[in-house]
Amino acid sequence: MGQRAVRSRRTLFEREGELAAADEALNELTGLREDGTEASERPRGALLAFAGRAGIGKTTLLAEVRRRAAAQGCTVLSARGGDQEQGVAFHVARQLLQPQLAGIAEAELRAQLGSWYAIVGPALGLCAPSEGAPPDQQGLRDGLDWVLTHLAVQRAPMVLVLDDAHWADPESLSWLAAFAPRVEELPLLLAVAYRPDELPDHVEAFRSLPGRAGLRPLDLEPLSAAAVADLVREDLGTQADDVFCRECWAVTAGNPFEAVELTAKVRDRGLVPTEEGAHLLRDLAAAVKGSGLIARLERLGASTVRFAWACAVLGTEIPPTLAAAVAGLGSEEAADAADALRGARILAGADTLEFVHPLIATAVYRAIPAAVRVALHGQAAWCVINEGLGPSAAARHLMETHPEGDNWVVQQLRAAARETQRAGAPDAARRYLARALREPPPLKERAAVLHELGCASLLTEPATTVNHLRAALEEPITDPELRHNIVYRLSQVLAHSDRLAEASETLAREIRMTGDARVRLRMQSEQFMWDAFRADEPDSPARSRRLTRLADRLTGRDLTERYVIGLRAWDATLRGEPAHVALHHAERALAGGIRWAEADRGFEVPVLVAFTFMYADRPGRTEELFAAGIADFESQGWHGAHLSFGYTLLGYVRYRRGRLAEAEDFARAGLRLAERVGARTPVHWYAVGVIIQILLARGRVTEAAQIGEEHAFGAPFPAAVTFPDVQTVHGELLLARGLTKEAAAELEAAGRRLDPRGMRNPSWCPWQLHLARAEKHDAPERAVATALEAVHRARQFGAPSAVGQALRAAADVSSGSTRVKLLEESVSHLERSPAAYELACALVALGTELRRSGSPKEAAEHLYRGLDAAMQCGADGLGDEARAELAAAGLRPRRLHSTETDTLTARERAAAALTARGRTTTEVAEELGTEEPTVVRLLSAVYRKVGTDRTGLAAALGQQTAR
Predict the structure, then answer these.
(1) N or C: more exposed end of the chain, with fewer CB within 10 A?
(2) pLDDT average, residue stretch 528-553
(3) How far is CA 113 from its chain centroid?
(4) Whole-angstrom distance, CA of residue 152 vs CA of residue 789
(5) Among 14-28, 485-499, 538-552, 936-950, whose mean pLDDT is lowest?
(6) What are phi and psi of 628, to 5 degrees?
(7) Known SUPFAM superfamilies for this protein (predicted)?
(8) What value does the mean pLDDT take over residues 117-125?
(9) Burial code of 575-600, b = ≥16 C-beta within 10 A, e = fewer?
(10) How many Å apart are CA 80 and CA 663, to the nearest integer?
């Protein structure tokens, strides 16, 4: 970037403490002691934050930090915010990172950035945005984190300097504020300066970040009278007497910028710096800023003033030819004006012009008459487009013009919004489109602009999106495709806002109006999908019959037909039709391919198809589909709600398979992402419900209850159907805590909600199984009837895991020989299923019952098997229960044997070793220098190869070391 010209000075007055902090940080970054010898500790980064009002010397201080960093061999990245560029998305991020990457050939850049190329490339101006769906904001931030982290490691030690952070664009500043806490773990010093009273509200977190050594940001104070005297004498000579120097301090209030400018004025006027001339200082100081500065500028002539105005409108890094075009000056006249402004210390630079100080730029900009300022911004927009800089560069100028019904303005703003949104800055796109709407656009284009505005607001302001899209439908629309797209988007945002009934009704109205059979089918598929998630659907059985008739006559020739068939597979699962029927339709849906990251469709149907396989006891197929789906999300840069759903539900799949340690890792990763999205959103309900269910299976009831309390896991429950059903999970949690009456009430309420809708598959929602256990003591006969009805439903579905789980629940509320028979049958079914945790539960229950009925030999066999299975699953509570039963039978537990670990790769072994020492997946990722999802995948491979879980890793690795 073109650096702001700062007059070279021999001394930084009264900044010894700040410079000492900078030297300490640089020494720790480069691994040097103060005497220049190498330190024993590894180099580490830091945040160095300077705060102070305008002109206090922040820029000069940062320039010195840059100089010292370069002298120590550091790679230095610099950027600064600009008053006129605050609305330009990623302006600061581009200043920082683009120079490090822009000179690399495209093929090499693609190889270097890998899957992040298409995600961060458009934001950094390295490539054009793709035509697909844009990355979500969190995904883009993750990509920028990756780029900066790798640059810091590859080009260490690195110093990143950000001046005027209060004027940085929201996208860049939010990213850096989130990244800043990580710098201490990297060979990176982040030095930031800002005006605290002008820091935007959207980065309050940035204000609270600690500075060097845990201190708050270092506040720069005005110079003392003695320091100003030293400054004056350094510039004007030792003849400057005490009275003159003290008056300089008084009229500048110790502001370094004003003091420097004042001494320059004294030199220009030839004023002798003694007491006799001190009375003139106040007038000279007034000429440095505000109206005095403007009066000085006006004396330079009309063309020079106009050139200065054009520069103020353009902001920073100003090409002289562009400034001349905006000012309407010829090349010679513009060159003369630039020379005059440089002589007056208003501008600096040659190939690229800059204002000497932001205070001067602000004063000049504010002095432009309002009407002229608007006209200059309009002229700047035209000139930027003519220079080939594109609509995005022109958009910030168009934002400052008055609406005049100019369709050219509308088209440029729409084009800028498309570019900006695809680059991952929907808020900036929304601002451009809102301004385009005020222009206003021609009547025939108004609906399209409203549609684009709604799409731009989708992720950040769903309620506003609904209003925009409904307004669009009220406009005259001549393009049927546009109308249909508006309806699809409106139904989607209503559904994701937990307004499923409205989503369904919106589609129903449009279905009645459209005459296109293919469009009608697409809308029917969308309506079927949202109805499938509605907890308050008035006639679910009738909808199921319609869906069955429709799906049975479709062949799956296009994506819409495959979506309908996929919904049929899921409906069969919910209703508990035979599992082979559900699987048949699931395979039909997949025959032509269903991607998770389709730009104009949700990912719900692909997920439902994948879960059909899981509930039908084919979790391996489910995991294949999830792996492909999550890869789709990551390649698109969707790291918010989409990726949270992916990890959470993959954790649920592992839970169903009895791989509880892996399940917990995935679910916690999903929960962390869900917390970014927001509390009580659908993705948050899913994540909390899954983690609670996993913790209960692991025997950590207190921790599960704490998670529920922290996340307000309770009524009112969402209107959308979830899996696991959150109300049922809440009932299960109450039951685990011994609150049987409250649990029974909650589970009965879940049954009243689901049963009339025909959702009767206990494999999907085992509310009856838990209800039977809750009723056992107060209503034992009813408990048996409830459990046997669930067994009947499970047998209809036919999946061994469903039947085995239901039989175990029936055994729990039965007694005597019936209990033993039910448990034996449960074990028989579960042995043919992938439900390892359920099998462990059934084995321990059967062994316990056999011990109590006087069959110690058979009991021991089942208890040993149950203990081994529980430990393999990571069900610590169940393992303790099995050990207690073995002890009661006078038997000692067998030692857990792990399999050979020689097959582990180096990275798998490293991840396993750190995990065995109690590190979290986040800590392991930081230690290995990789991403957390990669760690989760490494650990999954470890658990699979070693044949144990997190609990058994230490023993398994220890045995390997001994060998």
Answers:
(1) C
(2) 88
(3) 19
(4) 62
(5) 936-950
(6) -65, -40
(7) C-terminal effector domain of the bipartite response regulators, P-loop containing nucleoside triphosphate hydrolases
(8) 89
(9) bbbebebbbebbebbbeeebebbbee
(10) 44
